[in-house]
């Protein structure tokens, strides 16, 4: 009788401990699932595709057929084997993978453009390291056949001009099917892909090849935009392309003095805005910028490289959007651009990803609450109710 009663006394505390432990596991699991998975759905779900002019007067089928939905992001900087710490890799790549996959699932874009610096160490990585980086990239940015992925070369992918070699360029082109001066036409919209690293203007082998392709493509586009009754012998045998004014996609921005005129919460920090940009390093040279504007007369330019957002007008009419970095390693508030584009118009909208500071705050708050619950459970911390009750009873006794 005594042994059975003692067992009954011991069992309730054991059950209470197991129940408390289960509650802690559920609490910790819920916080992890929210911060590492659900938060991306909560934040990206709030993003909406922008409307373009005339879209309201179209039918639903006509709209989906004529409007191209494009996502534009830049500077993912997948860490390599030299500078990349394994924990930093794990954290940043998980964040970008979840963001990208969530955006694909919720927004269902027709095409995704990545504006260079996909890798952080492509400029000096060995063949083995390059193969590993490419494998990780394909895992993170996998997509269905419904969505097309187009990747532009950046200086960290093939090296700055003085580091760029034919081998590195060919290695990148082989993986991503990228060539400078390549034209992509989707739904009657012309996109021109530019290897801006090769716009040095010094006549290097890669530069000569790149510029020759751009000049030839410029000639085709200009001929295609001429009126049918316009007589031009130089255009008589040229392949005709859609008449839509092109959109330039490149890594380096066109020349601007600095980011002093850039505004917005994801523009450069105040201490960096007035720092002058170095030509051929931070931005293209004035000469290369004028060439691209003169050759293509684009209606929009999209670039990356600076890791911060900026919008400028060239020649008073041609907008350029600098897309901020997609990696939390470079920004507390990464984002991407959502574009609704037609052959004659476009509309852009920014979609911010979860702020890392907010995720950190949630973890800190959850950790503090967890400590309080544990201390209260082991009676090292008196719950406020009982503490107040004890004070009242002592006061009455006095």
TrEMBL record:
It is found in: Endoplasmic reticulum-Golgi intermediate compartment membrane. The gene is Mppe1. Its cofactor is Mn(2+). It comes from Certhia brachydactyla. The chain crosses the membrane at residues 20-43, 360-387. Keywords: ER-Golgi transport, GPI-anchor biosynthesis, Hydrolase, Manganese, Membrane, Metal-binding, Transmembrane, Transmembrane helix, Transport. One of its GO terms (cellular component) is endoplasmic reticulum-Golgi intermediate compartment membrane. InterPro entries: Calcineurin-like_PHP, Metallo-depent_PP-like, MPP_MPPE1, PGAP5/Cdc1/Ted1. Metallophosphoesterase that catalyzes the removal of a side-chain ethanolamine-phosphate (EtNP) from the second mannose of the GPI-anchor protein intermediate. Participates in the glycan remodeling steps of GPI-anchor maturation to allow an efficient transport of GPI-anchor proteins from the endoplasmic reticulum to the Golgi. The keyword Transit peptide does not apply. Belongs to the metallophosphoesterase superfamily. MPPE1 family. It is a multi-pass membrane protein. Residues 69-308 form the Calcineurin-like phosphoesterase domain. GO terms for molecular function: metal ion binding; phosphoric diester hydrolase activity. One of its GO terms (biological process) is GPI anchor biosynthetic process. This is Metallophosphoesterase 1.
């Amino acid at each position: 009788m005594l042994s059975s009663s003692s067992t009954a006394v011991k069992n309730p505390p054991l059950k209470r401990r197991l129940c408390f432990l289960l509650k802690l596991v559920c609490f910790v699991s819920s916080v992890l699932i929210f911060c590492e998975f659900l938060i991306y759905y909560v934040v990206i779900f709030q993003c909406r595709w922008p409307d373009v002019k005339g879209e309201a007067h179209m039918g639903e089928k006509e709209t989906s057929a004529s409007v191209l939905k494009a996502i534009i992001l830049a500077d993912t900087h997948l860490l390599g084997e030299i500078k990349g710490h394994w924990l930093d890799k794990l954290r940043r790549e998980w964040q970008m993978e979840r963001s990208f996959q969530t955006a694909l699932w919720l927004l269902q874009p027709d095409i995704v453009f990545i504006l260079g610096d996909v890798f952080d160490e492509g400029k000096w990585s060995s063949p083995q390291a390059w193969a590993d980086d490419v494998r990780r990239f394909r895992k993170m940015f996998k997509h269905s056949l419904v969505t097309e992925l187009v990747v532009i070369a950046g200086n960290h992918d093939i090296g700055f001009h003085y580091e760029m070699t034919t081998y590195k360029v060919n290695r990148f082109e082989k993986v991503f099917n990228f060539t400078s001066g390549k034209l992509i036409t989707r739904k009657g919209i012309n996109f021109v892909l530019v290897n801006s690293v090769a716009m040095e203007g010094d006549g290097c082998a890669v530069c000569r090849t790149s510029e020759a392709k751009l000049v030839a493509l410029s000639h085709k586009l200009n001929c295609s935009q001429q009126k049918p009754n316009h007589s031009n012998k130089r255009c008589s045998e040229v392949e005709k392309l859609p008449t839509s004014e092109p959109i330039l996609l490149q890594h380096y921005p066109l020349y601007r003095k600095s980011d002093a005129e850039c505004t917005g919460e994801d523009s450069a920090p105040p201490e960096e805005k007035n720092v002058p940009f170095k030509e051929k390093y931070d931005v293209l040279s004035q000469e290369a910028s004028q060439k691209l504007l003169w050759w293509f007369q684009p209606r929009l330019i999209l670039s990356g490289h600076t890791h911060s957002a900026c919008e400028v007008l060239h020649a008073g009419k041609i907008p350029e959007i600098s897309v901020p970095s997609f990696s939390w390693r470079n920004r507390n508030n990464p984002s991407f651009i959502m574009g609704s584009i037609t052959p004659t118009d476009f509309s852009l909208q920014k979609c911010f990803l979860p702020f890392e500071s907010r995720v950190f705050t949630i973890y800190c708050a959850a950790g503090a609450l967890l400590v309080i619950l544990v201390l209260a459970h082991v009676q090292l911390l008196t719950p406020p109710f009982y503490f107040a009750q004890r004070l009242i009873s002592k006061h009455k006794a006095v």
